[in-house]
Amino acid sequence: MNQNLNRRDFLKVVGTCTAAGIAAASCADLDKKVTTTEQKWQMRLSTSSIHYMQLPIEQACEQISNLGFEAIDIWSAYDNCPHLDDVAKRLGPDGLKKLLAEHRLKLFSFSVYKGGYERYAELLGKTGGGVAVRGSAPPCKPEELTGRMQKFIEELKPLAELAEQNNSYLAIENHGGALLCTLDSLKAFVDMNTSPRLGIALAPYHIQTLKASVPEAIRICGKQLFYFYAWQNYPDLQQFPGIGPTYMVLWIQALANIKYKGYVNPFMHGHPEADVMSVNLAKSRDYLKDCFKKIDTKT
């Protein structure tokens, strides 16, 4: 990526210096430290169990913990990942809590693209609550977007109530060829959604497919961003942060700007061997930490 373009994009993300005490600052001052009593934003990292789908959930947790991730995203049977169904049938909420405690992991989310949220809602709630990630609905023509999005959000209301009963949140992922796909559809969702239990799981991979701005997508989601995939639109292991070429400092800055409360989740589709996966997840972890060091956390 051209570094001059990166700089212009970065300045757009950070904004126009309107905060009290730096109103007269030039954009060049954005690289300087700003003294403030405001609490700094902290980046927290999780990753997904499906990266180790060939291993039992116990070993997947061990791998993820050993890599220094703070939390885990447990997948249902997408690509035949066995983890969430195995937890539901064999461990139950108490067994899962014990397993996570053993490996010093927090539960961030269940990804329920297969099986649906209803199937796992009670398990998620009894384990302590978290985010459930799912897809949206079939695509529509641009002129139909308002009506279709209103209908979709109306259909989600029973699930939002179920999430409230189970101390959880429902995050809808953007995806190519889906209702929630474009920046306009993200904005429509955010403008129409009034439930604090409903939000967005943002997949930059699909935003990049549209050649749209990932920082702009983050800004649009704002406080309704419940889940963030650190995931780029390149083949194979290059989907990971720091392996592919995308300059993700801009993404992490945008997350800091909206004070994103969830975990940053490096992600890829595909199933290399566990040792190969761990080497590349470690590189992604280090790259994201380096990105975090380069941002202004007080904007």
Which helices and strands, and how do they pair?
Layout (H helix, E strand, L loop, with lengths): L2 H12 L31 E3 L8 H10 L4 E5 L7 H20 L3 E6 L5 H10 L4 E4 L10 H21 L3 E5 L9 H10 L5 E5 L1 H6 L4 H8 L3 E6 L18 H9 L6 E3 L7 H20 L6
Parallel strand pairs: 1-2, 2-3, 3-4, 4-5, 5-6, 6-7, 7-8
Helix pairs in contact: 1-9, 3-4, 4-5, 5-6, 6-8, 8-9
Query: What is the makeup of the main sheet?
Result: 8 strands, parallel
Tally of strands: 8
Percent of residues in beta strands?
5-15%
Helix content: 40-55%
Using the coordinates shown, work out and report the CATH topology: TIM Barrel
Given the C-alpha coordinates, what overall shape results?
A: globular
**CATH H level: which superfamily?**
Divalent-metal-dependent TIM barrel enzymes
Tell me the structural class: alpha/beta
Mean pLDDT: 90
Short recap of the structure:
The chain has 299 residues and is an alpha/beta fold. 42% of the residues lie in helices and 12% in strands. Helix 9 (249-257) links the parallel strand 7 and strand 8 (264-266).
Using brief descriptors, characterize the structure shown.
about 300 residues, alpha/beta, TIM Barrel, eight-stranded parallel beta sheet, 8 strands
What does this structure look like?
This protein has 299 residues and is of the alpha/beta class. The protein has one domain: TIM Barrel (Alpha-Beta Barrel), CATH 3.20.20.150. The protein is 42% helix and 12% strand. An eight-stranded parallel beta sheet has the order 1-2-3-4-5-6-7-8. Helix 3 runs parallel beside helix 4. The longest helix has 21 residues. The chain is globular, with a radius of gyration of 19 Å. It starts with a helix and ends in a 6-residue tail after the last helix. The N terminus is likely disordered.
